[in-house]
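Bug: token stream looks shifted between consecutive jobs. Job 1:
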Amino acid sequence: MNTKDDFFRTTADTAHLQITDEAEACAAVLFACRRADEIDGAGGNAAFLMTLKNRNIFIGSDTEALIETVEKYFEQAGSPATLINAAMGAIREQTRLPLFYHCLDVILADGVVTPQEDKVFQYLMRKFKVEEEVAFRALEVLVVKNKL
């Protein structure tokens, strides 16, 4: 199954997938963004791993165990969008904007915005309820940042 092509595909029975821990939920969203990246290069993996190792919400978490947990969640969800939907309830309002920025950093690690990545960006903007002006400013900054 090519999950990059199936970002928005949902499975019929996802009620069983409940993510209640905020750190796991944030990691799940970041993992979903990583899986949705069309250009599957090392930059996205590095941005994903550095976020899990260095951001406050993940301090005290075993990075490898966290990745194993979110991989299992992803298997249950069946698609990145379904995983994000399952995680959103556990993510506090004040965590959403910083997480949105990190999601963009993971997706745009290669410095290019592909058509699929643009769709994911639009989806995340709606899910996280980020104002359009703020979201597009972040997109511009991260694309330039990641060209280095």
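Job 2, same session, no restart:
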Amino acid sequence: MLHKILLKFSIVIAVYILFSAVFSLLQNRTIYDNTLGMVSTNYERGGVAKRYIIYKVSDPYNEVTETNAYNWDAAYYLTIRNKLYADVDPHYIARYAFYPFFPIIWKLSGIRSSHVILVNYLFFGLGIILLSQLFMKRKSQDIFFFILALLIPSAIVFYLPYAESLFVLTFALALWGLFRKNYWVYFIGMLCFSMTRPAVVVLILSFIGTDIIYLSRHRNFRHFVKQSILNIAPVILGWLVVTAIQYYYSGSLTAYFDTWELWPKESGFLNRISDWSTEGFGMNFFALFFLALPALIYCIVLALKYLLKKAKREKVSLFGGDEAYIKGYMFNVSMMYMVALIGYFVFTSGNVLNGFFRYTMAVPFFYIILFQLPDKLEMVAVKYKTGLMLLGIAGLFISLLNIRYTGDIWRFEYLGLYMLILTVPLVLFGQYLPRKIKYAVLCLYIIPAIVWHTYLFNMYLSNAWIFT
């Protein structure tokens, strides 16, 4: 097992080195003009504050500096790192929308911005190593799916000085506690997890929704209550700790929820669908059609299946160390999390899809689903897999072509979408491919995946349209 962990850690380092090398090469004008510059453009911000204009330019990549590394959400995390929630402008309270665990760890480490990018990616790598060891241990496709997890277009978020990497790592540590039958490791991991990003309500609903489905199976209300309390106790405590910290500085128990008024809303979720960037729009639509909607169907079918079948009176505890039960339960929680996010977007984001791929694919729940799919799909006939894949692709493109915002889909800005679509047959039919062919395809996937990561990272440095 140690040999495989070391191999995975080496792969994480190799991917980061390749990312850094490609990014450095594309800072060179000659190399950029004769490669990526032939098929794409970059962005540049001009104008003044609140009246800025984003230009398309044919410039090579930017250098990472102490200034441009703190764009978008990272600017808020930097301020929280320096002074938590002190000196918040009462007319601009956006800082309360960000939870403090990541900037606290950042401050304690003393890491500079140019270095926190590497450390953040290592946090992500460690989290993915742990999740893959828990859910794909002794599986023949372990390394293949591990590499794919590092390369998929949505993984760009983990290069940014955002909280997502710790979000993955803390949840992975909590799950490690479950597998080791150590509730206190689970408790501490979940406590830190719930202080990292404001996904607390979504997670609580996911746990309770899953427990309700299980209740329809075992029909033991006392067991349901006990399990639910043990599941969500550290999550609620973490939420209360963050609320107390924000209350200390703001005098409001609803400081986080007050920030919702800052985000633009439009009436009608299906009316004039838009995004903050074309690059993110394509990936958001993939997450909707190949993750969120299938999760919704899965949860409905699961609920009906448990409700209609004869009740089983056995009481299995999530904290009893039964690996098969933990895996199945966490898969269901992860699918329920995706469903809860659909509801969140419907009721809070209007018709602006910005960030949907980040909230669904840059989270530990996505990787829990990904790493268990080989087992879940093993018994599904090829014809059904093919039919579902074609149906999803058809639905995705029919929807895209009927949305005014989409524009021309045959351009570089949609490369992330096409790279994600390519992962679908790799995941669905990988078990039928010979090992050499499978890894040959993965090798062909590496360079465009890394280039896409560097392109979006430079877009972030340019302080242009944000894709998350």
